[in-house]
Batch of 2 targets.
Target 1
Amino acid sequence: MAEEIQFTFKCPQCGCATFEEILVNVTQSTAFERVNCDEDITEPDYQNTSTDGGEIARYQCQRCGFILKDEQGQTIANTQGLRQWLDKNGQAGVTFSG
Ligand SMILES: [Zn+2]
């Protein structure tokens, strides 16, 4: 069994538990096999979506848009920075898997 540390997010501003990674310069592709048609195509039957490339622009709270920043006040735009931010501000828990 492997031990993993799992962090949960809590927005310092609004308490929301969900945050989002904002990517820029992404190529997104979506697979589908069928579409619904009236006069126009209404709803492709999307199977899955994948993204390719892209750079992290920022991490932010999904509800209020609070942007994660490091101690120097710089916007966090990489996973290392995110990890450090969570070390200080996240809530860590240990889970077991495998
Ligand atoms: Zn928030």
Target 2
Amino acid sequence: MATLTSAQHVFMFLWIIGSVAAGDLKAKPGKDVTLPCNNPTGSAVTKLVWSRPGLKDKYVFFFRDNRSYETNQDPRYHGRVELKDLQMKNGVASVVLKNVDIDDSGTYECEVTISSISLPVQSINLTVSKEDSEDSVEVRANAGENVTLQCNSSTDAAITKIKWDRPDLKGLSVFFFRDNKLHEIYQNLRYRGRVERKDPEMKNGNASVLLKNVTVNDTGMYQCWVTTPNMPGKLLRSVHLIVSERPPKVPSSKVGLGVALGLVCPLVGVAGFALGRHVGLKSKSGPL
Ligand SMILES: *[C@@H]1O[C@H](CO)[C@@H](O)[C@H](O)[C@H]1NC(C)=O
Ligand SMILES: *[C@@H]1O[C@H](CO)[C@@H](O)[C@H](O)[C@H]1NC(C)=O
Ligand SMILES: *[C@@H]1O[C@H](CO)[C@@H](O)[C@H](O)[C@H]1NC(C)=O
Ligand SMILES: *[C@@H]1O[C@H](CO)[C@@H](O)[C@H](O)[C@H]1NC(C)=O
Ligand SMILES: *[C@@H]1O[C@H](CO)[C@@H](O)[C@H](O)[C@H]1NC(C)=O
Ligand SMILES: *[C@@H]1O[C@H](CO)[C@@H](O)[C@H](O)[C@H]1NC(C)=O
Ligand SMILES: *[C@@H]1O[C@H](CO)[C@@H](O)[C@H](O)[C@H]1NC(C)=O
């Protein structure tokens, strides 16, 4: 069975590395937040468990055999958690946590089981806060489109470095700009030639970039790091990009709307992030 083989393969690969850190999310109170969870195999999910390390025996979200169960759900999450994609197409196992509050801040873990194989736990840190930086935003696009990844720096100071990363990809950046030029050697191959600055004049410290001709494989979390002469590299923005297959060319088609397709490459990506984080991927991307 190809499905099982592929799941096993991914499992073994990730197992060596241990649990996987998927990234950090920020939101303001009252917002709905997508907690991303990837299933690198793309196979249908048998069981999906979202939990928080502090909640003993209680779940944030529990899904098995195509339905969710509230029995052991922690009361604070009743009615607030939904699957992002009802049919978990391509194995996306993300959920939406609605109307977040400050005390929703903390670590969330998802565990995906396919057939009887559990993939390593993925974890994400959510910070809900009134102050501080902007919310993480979600951007949806269809394959083939150009997408702006917005990142504003509030400072007037000249930007010395802009780095866009995808934490789930190994080592190299999505975009690496320093001393007024793009450094392709620090750029992941799949992004070379596809990312450019929106505002080459750096007006108002704008660190937004244009990602061209997106594919479903560009789905993921993008983080914008900006450095100025008096500010060391700072995470200014997280953008969760979801790219759907281009809707079929049928007149008045509503197909494809909101169908988020899964990450196809995380075998390397997810594992790579864990590795990268723990062996100092930052230094590979050049000094800050
Ligand atoms: C989340 O927070 C915990 C505790 O503060 C930390 O150990 C962990 O590395 C963080 N994970 C990520 C993905 O940032
Ligand atoms: C799961 O539920 C969805 C939506 O209700 C349905 O389309 C799909 O066929 C179901 N899958 C299985 C394996 O039962
Ligand atoms: C994307 O941008 C490129 C140039 O930057 C342009 O040639 C192309 O037409 C754009 N594609 C779309 C779908 O807008
Ligand atoms: C970036 O700044 C511009 C101009 O100040 C503003 O219109 C835009 O909404 C900002 N974008 C974000 C994502 O904050
Ligand atoms: C930054 O660039 C984005 C995208 O072009 C634009 O919408 C925004 O207004 C710009 N912000 C500033 C402050 O120039
Ligand atoms: C956009 O990407 C697709 C698939 O990756 C490729 O076939 C196509 O040639 C690309 N289009 C442009 C304008 O680069
Ligand atoms: C996405 O990645 C997979 C695996 O690397 C590859 O087989 C597939 O062609 C890619 N799809 C697109 C649209 O680039």
